[in-house]
């Protein structure tokens, strides 16, 4: 399991001193109760930390500066208890760089009809303060999430939890370093991109390394280390020998075990959380990293095949975002392969030549060692399995030359109708929303790639919010998509993001 930092979110209440100290004492008390309630809900993946009530420009600016400087703070939740004149927020907002959520809530649920007077109204005027605060954000064109509803409402907790995941994805994006052991596959367009612009937009550091620099790490793994890890594999997974001699089969597996150890050592020593390989550029590696890469993906490393560094980085970002989802069903690198066009059983068979992330496996994976039918190396040992069923999203980050676009499709993963005994790969089978025809046409119009990051655990809204935070275009294909509507949206995006 991927372990991520125990981030905190600061809860900052806006008010002013117009109504006296007693009012401010109530404001602080209410804020403390809300923070305690949010933390006690058990629904938020990260802790909310109460900060002093903000009433002056100096304190607001200092608080935002401190939030930026605190490596444990992943964002600020702002609440307007009373009317907080928003000019006092401008200097702080101009400098603030982390995600911000405007929690448009109020302390009480109901208007106290029998007792309400002007003192109560002046003290409890979130409806008033929300508008002043929202206005200045709009005026300075600052991205923020707006969540409206009572703070004790389960829907608000769910939306706050989702935003927290997005915020951590945005903050952690700046820590993603991708190690490229090969360039992009020759002549392939969709895996290409501007690495400098990716660093500007997403904070990703994308470096190339000669594959033989990796080979020396793999070769340095001792036979006993490889044998011990292979023993672990044999405990965890079934074996499908396909008529191979068991000793010869085990030798294929040990090659992958040495790769897992060697590659992980390289990545750790050099500070990388994501990796790309290319079946056509393997240097001294005996096999295409397959089982080894599958295990590293399951540990939380991002991966993209054929030099696809954009997908590798997205894989890492989305794994980090999904790491705080309870009972997660998996987030992984994936590839569109083959349609089933039979009426009533439509869908797309998703897989890869061998590097399919067992994070999504519904069955106990089995090891097979079969030919790749591509490249010129020995048969790589790999894990095969079928995935969970259920709703998920597939995302594709593309480079359109003058900008990035994140395409997000809602899909329904289904159990395979029949086993596929001759297909030696992990698979998932899904049907895009609203249906195969519109979903595929929309994906093609939007320019989506064949490589995706698929997740059972994240939502389209979370990815839209992440793209907003990064300042890039996002396009959603879901149950409400029509081709005419989508093409109009793409046309607007082309004008807005140019
Ligand atoms: Mn591929």
Question: What report would you give on this structure?
Answer:
- With 498 residues, this protein is α/β, with parallel strands linked by helices.
- Helix content is 40%, strand content 20%.
- The chain is built from 15 helices and 19 strands.
- The radius of gyration is 25 Å and the shape is elongated.
- The mean pLDDT is 96.
Describe the strand arrangement of the main beta sheet, using strand numbers: 11-12-17-16-15-18
Provide the structure class: alpha/beta
What hetero molecules are in the model?
Answer: manganese (II) ion
Number of domains: 2
**Cα radius of gyration in angstroms:** 25 Å
Strand content: 15-25%
N-to-C span: 39 Å
So how many helices?
15
In short:
The protein has 15 helices and 19 strands. With 498 residues, the chain is an alpha/beta fold.
